[in-house]
Amino acid sequence: MEKKKTKLTISGNPKKSFKNFDASKNQPKKTVIIERQINKPVNKSNFSKSFASKSTSNFKRGINFKSNLQPKISTATSDFEKRKLAEQRATKRLKDDKEIKDKKSKLGSKKRELKLTVSRALSDEIEIRERSLASVKRARQKELKNSAKEENKENLKPVKRNINIPEAITVRELANRMAEQSSNVIKFLFDMGVTVTINQTLAADTAEYLVKEFGHNPIREEKAEEIIKKIKESRSENLKNRPPIVTVMGHVDHGKTSVLDVLRSANVVSGEFGGITQHIGAYQVQNKSDKITFIDTPGHAAFTEMRARGSKLTDIVVLVVAADDGVKPQTIESIKHAKAAKVPIVVAINKCDLPEADPQKIKNQLLEHELIAEELSGDTLMVEISAKTKLNLDKLIEAIILQAEILDLKTDFESKATGTVLESKIDVGRGPVATIIVTSGTLKKGDFFVSGLRWGKIRAIINDKGKNIDQASPSTPIEILGINGAAKSGDDFIVLDNEKEVKNLSENRAQEKKENKNPLTFATQESAFSDKSVEELNLILKSDVHGSSEAIKNAISQIKHLEVKPKIILADIGMVTETDVTLAKASNAVLIAFNVKPSKEAKKLAENEKIKISSFNIIYEVLDFIKQRMSGLLTPDLKETVTGTAQILEIFKVSGAGKVAGSKVTEGEITSVSEVRIIRDGAIIYTGKVGTLFREKNQVKQVSNGQECGITVKDYIDFQKNDTIEAFNVTSTARSI
Q1: 350 burial level (CB within 10 Å; 0-12, 13-18, 19+)
Q2: Nearest CA to 304 among 490, 37, 46, 494?
Q3: Which residue(s) pair with 255 in the sheet?
């Protein structure tokens, strides 16, 4: 295969498209060589023919090319114009688009300006409205202020208040009640020449004067006791008969509790330690259609307060006297309590079944105390009984009922209940428990009450048989739960309408009690010059009930001595706690537990701190123990006995022994262990012990009367002739209270 080159001359740049060709312009001529491939082999014979024919055809083709060139150029020109036209249209279109965009941007800016204008207009309008509202508000406030000023001008007149004035009130409290500043009250008093502080207590008369001066109306408050007195006196006329309240009194071990045991078929004596009643017990006995309430009191000398309480509460006193023992000190004391309370006495002469019983002797002894039996033309009922054999117990009941009928005992059953606290204690599971006797009215569950400084709400009522009841009528002995602390034996018991009243009354009582205490103490000649070396035995007493605690405190107060005295730091009811042990250690006190046990924690702490908890069940054992401990604080009695006397005749110096007093024993004897004193011109100048005793240069243990000897005294050498050496012995004797 061969390639053949062909030359073709054209005007212009053949690399450029014909679309850019312009025939009217002179284009540079260039020769283009076109290469062709010749597939057929070259035949020399036919070369001339083919060449000739080829040349002819090429010539013709060139002519045709020239002839066809003009239309192609014209076509290219038309395409160029079309493209130019298209470009012009595109340019125009771009121009139009730009104008449209400009118009849109102008329109958008106008819209934004319009929105801004509208928003400005709205904000201006809002501002105008706010200003108008503020001005209206200011005007309204000004109007209200002016009206308030006018009202204040109208109300400038002082307000006159009713001011309650207690017996004592502080400056602060008085100012608060008058709605005045405390400084104004203090300034007013200062102008009067009285200097006080804000916490100064003013008397009722001074407070009343100040209230009047400040333009108020003073009203004196009633005392708590006056309020209670009015409550007790405000009774309706609807009175009914009530059971009599009988107190059994007498000497210890005369059979008081045994009589009650038989009457109520109980066995209380077995529950008392040592067979001695140490609590107030209250029971109700049913005899056919009649009820009798009995109060059993202790007979021990220490329980004077309990007997006094029982006599004040009772309607009838049953005096139990043992036929084999006679009238005793506590019997006489019981008679005095009954007479002081102005209550009738029924004498029960007990133990008449014993061979040594002598009832007539008892009646004769009672004549000395103005108790005359009916058989002797007197007015005292006396019944000879026996608790052991139940002799004449029915007659005793008849005598009590007869005496009650004579007294005609009546009370109001419908009013608020009142009563008296017999005993109180703190039960581990139930809390504070109070034993009371309802004296009037009916006590119900849920009632609010005040008792002394305590108050509460009745949560439970328990009768003498241990049963829960919903209400208690007059003369009924009961236990109540719901008091906010241990009540004091002998306190009154009053039911009020609501909690607020009982709180106020309790607070008033506490305030009055605080005011009645006088903290000021004045020195007397006895107190100023008394001996301050009196020893004190600190005591902490924990007991089961308040009555026992009170009795022990009273008994301890009767123990008196010039050199030592008991001091009760704490006397409370309930078990011994860790606090009690800690207090005993801090105060070096004796910790006494009466009828109570220490808690596990307190017992462990006491063992660790080596504090002894002394437990007792009988009251006289407590008193004996306290006396014994007080006796230990007493200094023992020292007794001095002169055993011998010697006169110094000469003074010698002995090597190894120092100065030796050559003496002659004039009385008694002097031993080597004697205590001696040196007497010169009748004055004692030294007291010491014998150092060495010589007899003819030999040490001896004693020298008798008439013998000469040499004596040295320990730590003393300033002997002189004619000095007297007196030997003596001192014996120590323990003292007791």
Answers
A1: buried
A2: 490
A3: none
Query: Cα(272)–Cα(279) distance, rounded to whole angstroms?
Result: 9
Which among 496, 307, 500 is positioned nearest to 418, based on CA atoms?
A: 496
| Best CA proximity match to 8, nearest among 51, 62, 56 | 62
Count Cα atoms within 13 angstroms, Cβ side, for 279: 21
Residue 107 is which amino acid?
L
CA distances from residue 139 to 127, 129, 130 in whole angstroms, order as listed? 18, 15, 14
Which of these, 422, 404, 473, 406, lies nearest to 245 by C-alpha position?
A: 404
Beta-strand relationship, 658-668 and 670-671:
unpaired
Percentage, residues of the chain above pLDDT 90: 9
Give which of 581, 577, 574 is closest to 595, Cα–Cα.
574
188 by Cβ neighbours in 10 Å (0-12 / 13-18 / 19+) ranks as: middle
> Would you give the DSSP letter of residue 509?
H
Whole-angstrom CA distances from 621 to 552, 555, 617, 625 are 11, 12, 8, 6
Q: Check pLDDT > 70 for residue 299.
A: no
**Torsion-angle region of 389 (φ positive above 0: left; ψ -120 to 50: alpha; else: beta):** alpha
Comparing 436 with 58, which gets the higher pLDDT?
436
Structure confidence by residue, pLDDT tens digits, 227-283? 666 665 655 567 888 889 888 888 878 888 888 888 876 555 555 544 455 555 788
In tens, the pLDDT along 158-208 reads 677 888 777 778 888 888 888 888 888 888 888 888 888 888 888 878 888
* Contact (Cβ atoms closer than 8 angstroms) between residue 594 and residue 622: yes
- For the question of whether the overall pTM of this predicted structure is more than 0.85, the answer is no
Look at the alpha carbons of 493, 498, 500, 504 in this order and tell me if their dihedral is positive or negative: negative
The residues, any chain, with a CB within 8 Å of residue 649's CB and separated by 6 or more, are: 662, 663, 664, 708, 721
* SS3 track for 424-482: EEEECCCEEEEEEEEEECCEECCCEEEECCEEEEEEEEEECCCCEECEECCCCEEEEEE
CA-wise closest residue to 695 among 641, 646, 728: 646
Percent of residues in the chain assigned helix, strand, coil, to nearest 5: 40, 30, 30
Query: What's the pLDDT score for residue 287?
Result: 77
- pLDDT (0 to 100) of residue 68: 52
Strand 477-483 to 431-440 pairing: antiparallel
Per-residue pLDDT tens for 621-673? 888 898 888 888 777 878 888 999 999 999 888 777 778 899 999 999 999 88
Please report which helix (H) or strand (E) contains residue 581, including its range.
Answer: helix 578-587
